[in-house]
Fold these 2 entries.
Entry 1:
Amino acid sequence: MKLILCKTYEEMSMAAADEISALVASNPCCTLGLATGSTPIGMYRQLINRYKKGEIDFSGVTTFNLDEYYPISRENDQSYYHFMHQNLFDYVNVPKENIHIPNGEVSDPETECQEYENLLTANGQIDLQVLGIGQNGHIGFNEPDSSLWALTHITDLTESTIQANSRFFEKEEDVPKRALTMGMVTILKSKKILLLANGKNKHEAISALLDDRITTSVPATLLKTHPDVVLICDGEAYYG
Ligand code: F6R
């Protein structure tokens, strides 16, 4: 695992945007795996600025998002569909038809997951998957458990994740209790993985990622089996 230790969130966001810019420049038709949450917002801001300055062109890029709450309407301002449009897609030129986000509106989530996984397989490998990390070590919405699902699936959110994510909702009861998420194998199939983490509250999860053990009770530790992971984090996440 390669480590890029940054002094500030701004520096982290620049380093992450540099990775994406370099990939898109060398492979304009690449596939990006994208994440939501607070962590990548600065990186998306950087990418929007670079696009406005003509430094990056997304016209050939395809994207697949990691996850979406279930059930949730795409119009709900807490949906990841809404998040991605508000924080990136409304401001850059990724073609609409190249954008993929699991659909939290469907009546049959199992079929949606199967179709999402099939679409990913048909598209070929994700070139670069961006990840945040939950305080409990979750990746996407692969929550700590005695076993993990390999492929895209519907899952229950843990109490700790519901609580952590309630900061975005009016009240905790409004947080959806389930989500559609790529599985650990779906994520590990990506050519390269970029994991971003900032803040003291991520220190425990990052420590587990940096020790020698692999355990499904900290799903991020499975990333140790991947040959090309870049961890971009700040001192608080790294040192505690
Ligand atoms: C989001 C996702 C989650 C977040 C994680 C960290 O698409 O898959 O795993 O990356 O919950 O969230 P933040 O960045 O808000 O701390």
Entry 2:
Amino acid sequence: MEKTRYPVPDTPPPPLGECLPLWARRYGDHTALVDGEQRLSFAGLDHRVERLAAGLHRLGLRRGDRAMLQLPNGIGFVSVCLALFRLGVIPVLAMPTQRSREIEALCRLAEPTAYFIPATAHGFDYRPLAASIAATRPALQVIVDGDPGQGPSSFRALDDVDGEPARWPAPAPGEVAVLLLSGGTTGTPKLIPRTHADYFYNFTASAALCALGSDSVYLAVLPAAHNFTLACPGVFGTLACGGTVVLSATASCDVAMPLIARERVTHLALVPPLAQLWAQAREWETSDLSSLRVLQVGGSRLAPALARQLSGLSGACLQQVFGMAEGLLCFTRLDDPLNTILHTQGRPLSSRDRLRIVDEQGREVNEGMAGELQTRGPYTIRHYYRAPEQDALSFTADGFYRTGDLVRRDGDGNLIVEGRLKEQIQRSGEKIAIADIESQLCALPGVQAAIVVAVPDPLLGERICAFVQPAGERIPDGLALNQALSARGLGRLMLPDQIETLHAWPLTPVGKIDRRRLVALAMAADRAPPLRRYAEQQIRVNSAPLELAARLAGKLPTRHYTLYECRGEWSIGMDAALSLVVDARGTVHHSNGTSREGSRPCAGIAEALADIPFTDWRAYGRATFEFAHLAYGIHATSDGEPLLRLSIPQSEIRLRDGLALIRSLDPAALPGLAALVMAGDIPTRSPLGKAIGVLENREAEARFKQQVSAAVGEMQAGDYQKVILSRAVEVPSSLDMVSSYLAGRRANTPARSFLLRDGDFQAYGFSPETVVEVDARGQVSTQPLAGTRALAGETGEDARLQGELLGDAKEIAEHAVSVKLAMSEMSAFCDTDSLGVSEFMDVCRRGSVQHLASRVRGQLATGCHAWDAFEKLFPAVTASGIPKREALDSIRRHEAQPRGLYSGCVMIVDSDGALDAALVLRSVYRDGNRCWLQAGAGLVPLSTPEREWTETCEKLACVAQHLHTAAV
Ligand code: OOB
């Protein structure tokens, strides 16, 4: 069956730690690695690895230990990996895009003694991530390729790890050499133990098959931590032949294509979505790619049309690679006929690979039929790392690995991958092949690409959802697409039940299409019919929404409501049909009597909200400042009041220009609400009551200035960089909340405003900024404001103050630090590439003050939701300080009372995943007969008590100027 035999070295395999000295002896001065402007010879690399291994040994790393390696493509990655091999320490190869949740899970499984990170990469700072991982693992050594920064003392610079070379006992060939991440799509991570012998075979045999030699130059653009890039033949296969490895930290064609030309790259590996981008880029990218000899594409299905396009792209030979981190590798051969290369995923690397294609009962299917591929062979694992339960599912009794891939074999023994076993939709008892629908959809005009997923469905079991990438500007119509599919002869059962349009596919860390995320998107876009829905009625109105909202608020038939103004809509939620509260221990209590305990209340809230049995709901809620103590583990005394509350209202009124929408879970309540709105729409002359003044007292001034001095002292000693200290001012209880809200709002230009009543507790306010905004598509934005000047209402003076604000180094520095913190917080839950600042240092006017404002945006990463964003971004840095934990602690110590709602948030959350949280500043609070205002100032080491006192006075003026008694 094999047409060509390739020589495979027949000497016994050395342990991986002994490879490099061997290569260095053989290839000495030849260039081994190129990383940007750095070049390292084999001898140079060997020397560096020897010293690094000795340094790591001095730090206590020993044979059999595990070390988490999360480095981007670069010399650091290769040297650390080889140094660990030298010691017999087992690298766990994490992807650079993984974040705390995944790294935590890997650490629990592998219990590493060391963790290698870059200082920063692709705009993400790995040091806070490592600090959070190390916080619960005192023995974990964190080694930073770059500046370790101000991290904990367990952080060390990679450059400082050094020692005198020595010899360490070599591991046996059958011992585990490296732990690879499984590319599987289940939630729990699996680690793949590859031995010295099997991995050596993996890369040397692959290198021979790909005709690598000492004149070869391999460009690593996919993450080197992935098996494809590392050893198929990849980095190690190239080094084993004396070739040169060029490491690119990005796969972007703008960088990589010129690199191919500069380094005369001969071998390159891509995944299909990336290959498609590269093919498109050739329309304008004109770098000389003539050096390329082999272009490998693998990792997911390569459409024959794209394969054809790629094979004509340069003089390179296209090679399809069907592989898995678990072992088995199939390649098309370089001398295969073009048809084989375009239409098959090749045949196994080793003649000792055993393959069988089985049906659901595990019986081998007839020649040419499709079934699940099972495999066993010299470099395929027999079990996962520490996962006996998973092993029982993934391996047969006779040691075959169940790949879960649906394949068939052509007459020459080449495999054709039809899809995943799970890529069959079980719709009403029928089995439907996803690939068939996808290829039919792709053939339609107006469709650039299509992905079909199975979505759980209460009626059908699973429904067919097609995601379509339009070829041009026009969004294809779902109905028309289904008609076109029928016209092409697709059976009724195979027509998609749901069609969604997407302009770009969500991708996994190596760049494969993330089908799990697509299923989640499909579910979010079309929730199953729920139990209850709101009855709705629209009414035309004449009054401006603010005026109408205020008139209604005075007359609502309830003592429990929240009014929230957001983007031109005043939305009022009344009485709770269902509520959630978070207590001081972080437990989430549901009004149905259930509760969820756990270290992450936000995750508990998200879970509880996912189970709400209504459709199209909007929750209204608020969080106290002290809610943040939970996330930062600050122990605070509790007055028993909930830290966060959310309720799904019984009824709602949403007001916009000219239109009122009333909604209620009880249809019988609509007429009463409609009458209320119509009555409120008739303008009445309601004169304001008497103005109320705020009395400042000297004692409070002295106390505040004293607190400022104390905190400034701590900052000058380097304890933290910034803190916001605040003070409360009592106001007479004759204050009328509703009319004061109206008067204050007329005179103010807030980002958000609110007015709420919950029994005896009332508050209203004019938020200068939001804590976080997440829309239904997962776009997150936050708007750090820092830097303040007064706004007097006189054009000349205001412009002068604005100029001063934009030119004041202290204000600018303070602002820049807030933006940086927002970026770093958002990188915990956003796709790194999506992060950006869309408004930088705009001056925004809020009532009697003006601020420096920037907006940081990003796209929620796969598997993350709005509550992950809330958890990280709350409390607003503007109202707490930097670093947040130290600032929270300082506030707790210096301020006499818990803040409660001040500097917490009021928010709305929608059933489509959107969340909007307004920062509570410039507000008025009332609890029974006590009424008060509160304002703060941002302190930095250069702050003076006098100026900060003035700043609090300026901010108080925003609301204090508009306080009134009730009209008589
Ligand atoms: C490679 O490895 P993993 O572990 O990330 O993913 C393995 C799975 C396979 O089971 C299969 O479902 C899919 O990825 N896959 C392909 C494919 N190559 C891999 N599906 C269709 N066509 C292909 N050519 O992805 C991997 C490891 C080593 C070399 C190449 C790829």
